[in-house]
Write a structure and sequence with these properties.
three-stranded mixed sheet; 97 residues; mainly alpha; 6% strand; 3 strands
């Protein structure tokens, strides 16, 4: 989860997406959401929701919980890259990849 807060420290969003995809069978979604809440990083929660939805792992209950935490501001999908203006309103992310 800390990699979602600082993707630059673990290889970027692509590496995180590949890791989530490879762990999809063993992924404890409930535990992951509790940890996301514990971290109190809204941008990490945005990225997590976006990636889980793209990978088809996110169920409606988990989506509802994550959407409560994203807030109203926008964040960048890749923090090291500039804003592109390609906004994803559901997860409040600038898809600047």
């Amino acid at each position: 989860m800390s990699g979602l807060g600082r993707p630059d420290l673990c290889g970027g969003i692509g590496v995180l997406a590949a890791a989530l995809d490879s762990w999809r069978v063993r992924l404890d979604l409930h535990k992951l959401l509790r940890y996301a809440r514990y971290q109190r990083n809204r941008t990490a929660a945005r990225r997590l929701g976006f990636l889980l939805e793209r990978l088809g792992i996110l169920n409606p209950a988990a989506q509802f919980r994550l959407r409560l935490w994203v807030g109203k501001a926008y964040g960048r999908l890749e923090p090291g890259r500039p804003w592109q203006g390609n906004l994803e309103p559901k997860w409040r992310l600038d898809l600047n990849d």
